[in-house]
């Protein structure tokens, strides 16, 4: 299999802006395009409504039209934060959008006083794991049989951490 050359940035201007309760339907739709199964509207609404939780929306500008292409959802409590979910539409991947979302998330949680950012990722998701490692996350643990696999079985979650202060 031949892999397309890695692109270093989005060919169109990209805007990353806050997303909150008013964006639940859009965040749910994006999550559903990025993950199987996607989260329900009720789950998304509950999460985005929790204290310390925030969303980020990545939108490409194309000839004056705005097209949502990715999102991140995170929460911060005391001196720790968790990246709950991050996704980029399949047709928009490998253009640096996820890196920009991670950077915006790191900036926001650091500004809220977090000293570390945590996330969980499926063990088999080697592409995402490589992305996170390239962004300074390191493996600190594992949750056995945490995710339901597409075949009906279970997959371990790898727990990763990025320190935000030196």
Compact overview of the structure:
The protein is an alpha+beta fold. The chain has helices at 24-34, 41-49, 97-111, 126-134, and strands spanning 14-19, 53-62, 65-77, 80-88, 116-122, 138-148, 154-163.
Strand content: 35-45%
Count of helix runs: 4
Residue ranges: pLDDT <50 for 5 or more in a row?
A: 1-8
Order of helices and strands: EHHEEEHEHEE
The CATH architecture assignment turns out to be: 3-Layer(aba) Sandwich
CATH level 3 topology: Aminopeptidase
State the helicity in percent bands: 25-40%
Mean of pLDDT: 91
Radius of gyration (CA) equals 16 Å
CATH superfamily: Gcn5-related N-acetyltransferase (GNAT)
Largest sheet: 7 strands, mixed
Structural class, please?
alpha+beta
CATH C-level label: Alpha Beta
Total number of domains: 1
Give the tags:
Aminopeptidase; single chain; 166 residues; globular; alpha+beta; seven-stranded mixed sheet
Characterization of this structure:
The chain is of the alpha+beta class and 166 residues long. Helix 1 (24-34) packs across helix 2 (41-49). The chain has a single domain, classed as Gcn5-related N-acetyltransferase (GNAT) (Aminopeptidase, 3-Layer(aba) Sandwich). Strand 4, helix 3 and strand 5 (116-122) form a beta-alpha-beta unit. The protein has a 7-stranded mixed beta sheet, with helices on both faces. The radius of gyration is 16 Å and the shape is globular. The chain has 4 helices and 7 strands. It starts with 13 loop residues before the first strand and ends with a strand.
